[in-house]
Amino acid sequence: MRPFVALALLPGLALAQNWQELGPSPIAGGFTGRVSALAVSHIDPNKYYVGGADGGVWLTTNGGSTWKPLTDQQSTSAVGAIALDPGNDEVIYVGTGEANYANHSRYGLGMLKSTDGGKTWALLGQSVFAGRTFSKIAIDPTSPQTVYAAIAAAGGFPELAAAKGHPLASGPLGVFKSTDGGQTWAHLTGLPQEACTDIALVPGAPNVLYAAIGRPFGSASNGIYRSVNGGTTWSKLGGGLPTANVGRISVASSASDPNRVYALFVRNADANGGGASTLGGYRSDNQGDTWTSVPVGSFQSSYGWFLCAVGVKPTNADVAVFAGLSLIRTSNAGGSFSTITTPHVDHHAIAWDASGRLVVGSDGGVFRSTNDGTSWTNLNTGLGICQFYAALSLHPDDPNVVIGGLQDNGTVVRNAQTRTWGNYIGGDGGYTALDQLLPSRAFAQFQGSGNLYRTSNGGSAWSFSGSGISNTDRNAFFSPVEIDPTTSNRILAATYRIYRSTNGGTSWTAISGDVSNGSGSVRALAIAPSDPQVVWAATNDGNVSKSVDGGVTWSKMLQGIQGWPRVTRELWIDPQDAQTVYLAVARYGLDQVRRTKNGGVTWQTLDGDLPDVPVNCLATYGSAIIAGTDDGVWWSVNDGAHWSRLARGLPRACVIDIKIDLVRRRLVAGTQGRGAWWLALPAPPGKQGT
User: Are 404 and 388 in contact (CB under 8 A)?
Assistant: First the structure.
């Protein structure tokens, strides 16, 4: 396996400019990307640390008016948990890897620790935790060198898809304990070897711990376990808790009443992520000996594996908030609940700051309430943690216009005049396509098959454009859409088969059979610029196939190519040569950069000294090969023999898409967690190598 190291820029190719942020931070309406974790100062009511799901750690010292990124140049931007030393909020523990179990809940690489408020960091526990995720970190207030970590597997459907083959992805799960501030860790015995989805420490009795073992797909071992001796021994709690159909679990103890505990149980998910509705809410008044069911109803839709958290107000044990698709609140110890209307759906983190204000993190960012949820203040200004999907679109005439789809924040466009981002279509924004010959026409979509929309006036109005595409087709969460660069009324879209429109997207006809192996779908689609009858497709069950008749018939050129299950831009066809194709492989331990020069008959590996990190997308620029990876953008100008980071200033985030603007000599990168960025490029390097 190649070493994971940072390399210097290639001699003579240092770029005059650094990467520049395009945003959004936030989009119109004040929303930004998913907040997976937050921690508030115990003494300063205006000091919060926020973790973007894949956007790193951010700090505000003025109650959310402004934010500062703290971990852009750390080894990963995936965040699952944050905890502050109860006696010193300059000491920060960050668990990398997001334990929310989605395909985009990326694996971690260990625990980050700072002792100076985030100015400098140390990466701890790499060999202990890498490849997995952190659900929660808890610190003993009476002995702050004692730290507990709840560890779960990386998520996805199929299970572990978000781990992208990390070599430690199947490592130990459960609860780990450190007594030296995170320098060394012990894996606590007496618990099942399953995902620990939450832990709670009783502040008034810190030797009492609760561990929620909650494998989202279900397990006979799932349940709440208690230790009364700091994790030395554990017992599974019953006394009214459910024992069947149990999936993810969250648990929270009261700071003001050491006997009070709340829990939220989700039904186990099926293999495709469905069925995970609310199983029940529970309260204990005797440290978990017995439990009373509380009327939480069903508020997690069918994906409670993604949405499950509980918080108890520190000053009042009768006030608790449960998080799901919406928030629900009790003010009478679970006797009754009311739904809290929040600015954005899908909630993941709950806290009360030092002045007693409720702070929550959701798929739309971070919000605060002075009245436990009756009204809200948006805190997202300057918080740049939006998560793009493939694929971005650039305007052929106006360099300020960029279109892209965001996780749970719709399709957005960067306004040429205001340089701000407006929203086109809601839901999860997916693949976009902008007609380079008629740029007033563009396509956008939300999740599912056939959910395609078109504008013919630059985005002022949108109409349904999926007529003829079956909404029951299997899909890679979205459907790739590609416009013929020579005849833009001809457009291809893909589910598990290929659809073609010859009238600019007004109607569609299925032209191919199943391109997958019978259970997958097309995640990547590419049309050769020099010969649009040559089309390539990659499926999420491992096929890389070619068509030479415009997408009607297909030949499998590679099989068993593992990667990300959702839409990608892993295929790049040389603009001048339809026989030359590059393939990115988003997987550890495999050849991540491959090329064929004979239409797929034979392939070369071009990884050279590229670190062993998943590669999500590729492009060429003259003789240079540019790779968007889980660790930023890299390039090579000698046919892949040597690789280096492309310029400076780009966060070490997951780059999901890259677009090259040859006319203006610039590169635009879309990240899953730090928005979009652009870089001015030098003149294209001349053709070198073989």
Answer: yes
Residue pLDDT, tens place only, 104-127: 999 999 999 999 999 999 999 999
Tally helices (H) and strands (E) across the chain. 1, 56
Can you tell me the distance from the alpha carbon of 22 to that of 657, in angstroms, rounded to the nearest whole number?
A: 14
Structure tokens at 606: 């071009």
Answer for the pair 389, 430: CB distance below 8 angstroms, yes or no: yes
Tell me the C-alpha to C-alpha distance, in Å, between residue 572 and each of 173, 368, 395, 491, 582: 38, 44, 19, 18, 5
11 Cβ neighbours under 8 A, 6+ residues apart: none
> Residue 195 corresponds to which tokens in the numbers above?
């995902």
Stated as kind and residue range, the H or E segment containing 522 is strand 522-527
Name the residue among 131, 168, 129 with its Cα closest to residue 150: 129
Tokens for 256?
A: 């003001």
Q: DSSP secondary structure string, 107-120?
A: ----EEEESSTTSS
Q: For residue 22, what are its two tokens?
A: 């395009």
Delineate the domains of the chain, giving CATH numbers in brackets.
1-24+569-690 (2.120.10.30), 25-378 (2.130.10.10), 391-568 (2.130.10.10)
pLDDT at residue 298, rounded to an integer: 97
Half-sphere exposure of 580 (CA within 13 A, CB side): 11
Cα first-last separation, the chain: 25
Tokens for 628, please give them. Answer: 């968007």
Q: pLDDT of 349-386, one tens digit each?
A: 999 999 999 999 999 999 999 999 999 999 999 999 99
- Backbone phi and psi for residue 163, each to the nearest 5 degrees, phi listed first: -75, -20
Phi, psi of 382 (to 5 degrees): 85, 0
Q: How far apart are CA 389 and CA 383, in angstroms?
A: 18
Q: What would the pLDDT profile of 160-201 be if each residue is shown by its tens digit?
A: 999 999 999 999 999 999 999 999 999 999 999 999 999 999
Rounded Cα distance between 586 and 570, Å, is: 8
